[in-house]
């Protein structure tokens, strides 16, 4: 597709025109980032190389919290409410919202990269002020030891059930603040993006759409219709968009341009290439929101009987 065609595809997403069953191969190629056609978060300050999982854990504990305040302390439309929430399973997440009652709102679950933290994801994505501006609830996931089980990367060897974790997270958020369960979306960066892709495939009854940045779909995805947007830098060598071996995580990745071949024919899979490396581009948050808010409704998992 030409640069003009890619930009048109981006514009269609932003203004809310559905992209029906668009093969990724038709939209992937070279090119520069799309023009900013929707409100975008501020560019984060430059960051250093990814920290180790141990360092990431330390960074996470240093993030700001609201002390002992509980969800019931948040006012209906009062000050911004951000709190680390402990789940019954023993895991946790960060909840960001401004309301505890009233009309249900969309929920975005945002998943950080390998060896990163929820605090890193807030800084990289600019999603917190964006959520306040656009009226959705935001939950930042916490990976175990800094990595997510997305299939073959990156915590698959320890067998942790991150899909069960995401189900528990969404249910817990919905108990604390009004959530429109037909408009729950999952986005992720790098290893977090890989889990976001897995989640929309394996939990389409929970997530209406997914956003993947610098990640890959690593699991079979032929059970149900999905909606997914994939943003990837063509110069990415950490998670190569054309696939192949990664020295960073010691995994062989598939070619992103073949994703449409691994999902049902009724699925919508939109791809946006850009000529960057392994990064969350400054325009990604606004673009993912423009795509996600088109979709509502979940898909029941097929019967196993």
Automatic annotation (TrEMBL):
Return the SUPFAM superfamilies for the record. alpha/beta-Hydrolases
Q: Where is this region: Disordered?
A: 34-76
Q: Which UniProt keywords apply?
A: Hydrolase, Signal
| Composition-biased stretches (Low complexity) | 34-58
Question: Which molecular function GO terms apply here?
Answer: hydrolase activity
Taxonomic superkingdom: Bacteria
Bias class Basic and acidic residues marks the residues at 61-71
InterPro entries in the cross-refs: AB_hydrolase_fold (IPR029058), Esterase_phb (IPR010126), Plant_Biomass_Hydrol_Est (IPR050955)
Gene Ontology cellular-component terms listed: extracellular region
Indicate what this protein is called per its UniProt record. Answer: Poly(3-hydroxybutyrate) depolymerase
Organism ancestry: Bacteria, Bacillati, Actinomycetota, Actinomycetes, Frankiales
């Amino acid at each position: 597709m030409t640069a003009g065609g890619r930009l048109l595809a981006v514009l269609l997403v932003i203004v809310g025109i559905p992209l029906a069953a668009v093969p990724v191969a038709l939209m992937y190629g070279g090119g520069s980032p799309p023009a900013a056609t929707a409100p975008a978060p501020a560019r984060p300050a430059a960051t250093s190389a990814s920290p180790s999982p141990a360092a990431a854990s330390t960074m996470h504990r240093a993030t700001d919290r609201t002390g002992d305040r509980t969800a019931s302390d948040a006012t209906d439309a009062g000050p911004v409410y951000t709190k680390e929430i402990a789940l019954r399973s023993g895991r946790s997440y960060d909840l960001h919202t401004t309301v505890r009652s009233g009309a249900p709102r969309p929920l975005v679950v945002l998943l950080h990269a390998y060896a990163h933290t929820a605090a890193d994801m807030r800084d990289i994505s600019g999603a917190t002020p964006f959520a306040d501006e656009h009226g959705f609830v935001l939950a930042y996931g916490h990976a175990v030891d800094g990595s997510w089980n997305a299939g073959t990367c990156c915590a698959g060897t320890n067998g942790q059930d991150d899909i069960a974790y995401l189900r528990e997270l969404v249910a817990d958020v919905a108990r604390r603040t009004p959530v429109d369960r037909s408009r729950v979306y999952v986005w992720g960066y790098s290893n977090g993006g890989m889990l976001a892709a897995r989640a929309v495939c394996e939990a389409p009854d929970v997530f209406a759409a997914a956003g993947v940045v610098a990640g890959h779909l690593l699991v079979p995805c032929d059970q149900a219709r999905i909606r997914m947007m994939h943003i990837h830098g063509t110069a990415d060598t950490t998670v190569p968009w054309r696939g192949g071996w990664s020295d960073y995580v010691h995994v062989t990745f598939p070619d992103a341009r073949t994703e449409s071949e691994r999902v049902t024919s009724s699925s919508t899979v939109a791809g946006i290439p850009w000529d960057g490396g392994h990064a969350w581009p400054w325009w990604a948050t606004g673009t993912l929101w423009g795509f996600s808010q088109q979709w509502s409704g979940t898909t029941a998992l097929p019967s196993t009987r």
